[in-house]
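ARCHIVE CARD
SHELF: 3
SLOT: left
DATA:
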Amino acid sequence: MYVLVGGAGLVGLSLAQKLVELGHTVAVIDIEPNACRYAREQVGAMAFEGSAVSTEVLLEAGIRKADALVAVLRSDALNLAMVTLAKHYGVPHILSRLRHGDFAEPLRLAGANHVISTVELSVSTMVNAIEYPQVESMMHFEQGQIEVLKLAIPNNCYVVNHSLAEIAQDSRFPSGSLIIGYQPHPHEDLMIPNGSTVLEPGSTVLIATKPGSVHQVIDFIEGCQ
């Protein structure tokens, strides 16, 4: 994919580097010469010096052929302008960072497919780390209607050496919950399990559940034999 990133701050450069590592072609736009030089020399991205809300600069950067555009500029107003221009030039997938909640709806109306609040993400991550210290990571879907937890399987817990079919039939396993991913060992690939998959000690699972069942899922998985 050809991805344009507006803004070469910490988020923009980190995103560009990750996308380059994944094999995408990335072009960064920023008004700071040093940031552009860093993007070229250290990140391996193309860089265009100038305003990311200038039609001249955007056209030079190839906005007409971009598969995706990410606006991570220093203000919501600038991000809104860049999103509007990206929509005008027909970019199919547009993402924007959000700093202030008042801009969320304008950004969506302007054409952003995804509006991401870095503050909300940070707060949510910290709250989850405090509320559920056992959980390695947690993802929210459909405005928090579904939670997906990544949990390690302790050596002495009840579910060790039990199949997913046995676990699903256990009355203590919260209804509406489902183990959707399984990683036998840290250096092995994540796999999609089936009913005959047996959980080994030291393995990791991904579990989809409702928000109100998170504590129950954790208690069940970590319950001792």
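SLOT: right
DATA:
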Amino acid sequence: MVVSQVHLVRHGEVFNPDGILYGRLSGFGLSKLGHRMAQSAADDLVARNRSIASLASSPLQRTRESIAPIAAAFGLEPGVDERIIEPTNHFEGTVMSRAVRVPTNWPWLINPWRPSWGEAYASIAARMRAAVNDAFDSVEGDADAGGDVVLLSHQLPIWTLHLSVAGERYLHDPRKRRCMLSSITSFERRDGELVEVGYAEPALALQANASDVGAV
């Protein structure tokens, strides 16, 4: 029997001409390029020739739009999982490069370890672990339901889970996250422990023309 995997897919480029830190704000869907990126992720998953048992996305527009081509490719109806949503952030709705120059915002920047500007990294890791473990539980031990699970999420939740699984510290430079638009980070569960087994960038050829400034 093929070992089940859970694939964490990041959404494609968002239409965000003003460079807003969009966070959980409504009204931020994919750009035309973002839809092409999402299709690239779907094509990559199809090319792996693995059975997909179920799909779920965060409730935000950009992830629901990004999972659509995957749902079409595998003939599945995606669910929604609130646990894989973008974290909260004090600077949501602002242009970050301007907001950090405002003195009244400085107290929100004093503790990068937590971080003080939003949801704690430990909280993000815990909810992501719970979502991924539940995804494994939904397919393991059931011959009829066996297969992989695809979860469409966001950069920081995916990267925080990566750091947690790798046993690395949470404090990091957001500019150096290895979690590009429409990337796929894959996990297996071995002896009850999550293990990262792959990372792919199906939309790499499209990245040069993409804007990626709105992630938390």
